[in-house]
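Q: Predict the bound structure with adenosine-5'-diphosphate.
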Amino acid sequence: MHKVLRVENLSKASILHEVSFEVAAGEMLAVMGPSGSGKSTLLYHAAGMACPSGGRVWLGSTEITGLSEDEKAKLRLHRMGFVFQQMNMIANLNILDNILLPAVQANKGRHRKSRAELTDKAKRLMEQLSVSGLEARSISQVSGGQLQRACICRSMINAPEILFADEPTGALNRGAAEEVLEALGRLNREGTAILMVTHDSRVARGCDRILYLLDGRLCGELRLGKPAAGTEKWREEQVNKWLSRLGW
Ligand SMILES: Nc1ncnc2c1ncn2[C@@H]1O[C@H](COP(=O)(O)OP(=O)(O)O)[C@@H](O)[C@H]1O
Ligand SMILES: [Mg+2]
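A: Predicted complex:
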């Protein structure tokens, strides 16, 4: 199976200790663990947003560790998507322009697309994530769940190979969290690999595989496989049993 992301012995001073794992094409992988165990740090280092003190990371066949800051920024813009708990939308741009921003930034060089082409693409994503009609709203005129789904549109606009999500439902109420989760699940079924940090077993139960991070070390893995209809409850029980065995 083709590997989208490969992390080998990733270390960060006293926070991460020789963490190794892979994300396969089409996989949705969750990282769980107590607060302060290094989950966010792991995600940011795996995405080349910070420099590790040891280890190597590959996106497909490109080694990220060793690239310059400029090269990493370009890689992130073109080949990775990001969804955070704090949504990082720009306040004086409307929803559509926020979604378009990475597309505009990436749209350089000889084969530039027209604004209409980019807008079409954004609108298709908005439809897919059920936020059509909100194009002209400001970010304060939509609900938390709508805003997070708009953030997912923004993160998908350059068709990334992998989506990194840090507690994507952490700031949402239960209904909104389920909408966001459903949206992520759909993108994953359509082929986008996802690496997600979560502390919520309802979120993790939808993933193919879960890793457990404790004090910067990987110390558990649960393989659930792709979800089948009607197995949600059983999957959540598996996750909770596994977590309690790990002392969660
Ligand atoms: N910028 C930073 N400088 C120094 N220590 C940090 C920094 N960011 C996080 N840490 C520390 O690294 C550890 C892991 O943090 P973090 O990755 O945010 O954990 P988690 O996401 O699992 O809650 C914590 O002990 C935290 O205090
Ligand atoms: Mg965190």
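A: The domain at 3-245 is CATH 3.40.50.300 (Rossmann fold).
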